[in-house]
Amino acid sequence: MVDKRFQPVSGLDLPRFAGVPTFMRLPQVDPASKDLSNVDIGLIGAPWDGGTTNRPGPRHGPRQIRDQSTMIRAQNGHTGIRPYELVNCADLGDVGPNPASVEDSLERFTSYYDHIRQAEILPLTVGGDHLCTLPILRSLGRGNPLGMIHFDSHTDLFKSYFGGFQYTHGTPFRRAVEEGLLDPKRVCMIGIRGTAYDSEDRDFADSVGIRVIAIEEFFKRGVDDVMQEARAIAGDGPTYVSYDIDFVDPTFAPGTGTPEIGGPNSFQAIEVVRHLDGLNFAGADLVEVSPPFDQSGNTAYLAASILFELLCVMAVSRAGRNAG
In angstroms, rounded to a whole number, what is the distance separating the alpha carbons of residues 297 and 249? Predict the structure, then answer.
């Protein structure tokens, strides 16, 4: 049963520019509190960019997206979904990284998500750079490899950077496959484009059975057709969704560290998420928003809008699980 305490503050009751910003204006719940047991979907900030190799700043993403998410209302204008009437949602605050240590931060994140997993909460995470996803998968995929639908302009499948360093935002999914956290034959990567150092990442994808849909194929086939294939690849098993904001063309999302031209527009950015309806969600994230390069705030607002679309399809999935 949905608890009325887990409702967002309405802009009709308190102006959107007032109050302490939380994701979607939801109540904040301390992960150490007893209320955690009542949460179905937890929105979590991951303010860490220790894996960034180009333009920094995603550590500031969660705070900016919280602020922009005050503009999001309670009902999806297209689907009619009202997620807060289906399940209990809350802002669970931020995972505390160690900005001086990549290794310690990875361990801190995994420990945090172990706690969330034990509480049977479906996590929806806001990064941070894409390395944040690896420790989440180390928790959620341990002992049960997940499928994944990945929206990005890069595969993030490289072996290493800078002479053998294995933990950057360009390597998380290579590590996840090697560590048995992802079932590569249930992984689909969508939107890949841009210049390249070499073909190492694509060669690895081919060798393990990861399906890579380049942006040219995406536009040629269209959203409906591509997403049907992605859903078929993921199947009925638990599936993680990882959404890098640089999937979107930098005309619409300039505030990111490694932009690539020739991507989807802002409508297509939310349309692909709506096609995830019915997916067996293990969790999801949205990463790589960099406020220092987002002077208008439009990238963070687009990210908040994508986040709400993810929340809607996840709420339907979790409500069905609760009913079952």
Answer: 15
Residue 153 is part of a domain; what is its CATH number?
Answer: 3.40.800.10
pLDDT, tens digit, for every residue of 98-145? Answer: 999 999 999 999 999 999 999 999 999 999 999 999 999 999 999 999
User: What does DSSP assign to residue 261?
Assistant: S
What's the farthest any 2 CA atoms get from each other in the chain? 55
What is the per-residue burial (b if ≥16 Cβ within 10 Å, else e) of 276-291?
Answer: beebebbbbbbbbbbb
Q: What is the pTM of this model?
A: 0.97
Are the C-beta atoms of 151 and 260 separated by less than 8 Å? Answer: no
**Domain of 23, in residue numbers:** 4-323
**Cross-strand partners of 286:** 126, 243
Model pLDDT for residues 37-71, shown as the tens digit of each residue: 999 999 999 999 999 998 999 999 999 999 999 99
Contact 186, 141 (CB under 8 A): no
Burial degree of 35 (CB within 10 A; 0-12, 13-18, 19+): middle
Task: Count the domains in the chain.
Answer: 1
pLDDT tens per residue across span 143-184: 999 999 999 999 999 998 888 889 999 999 999 999 999 999
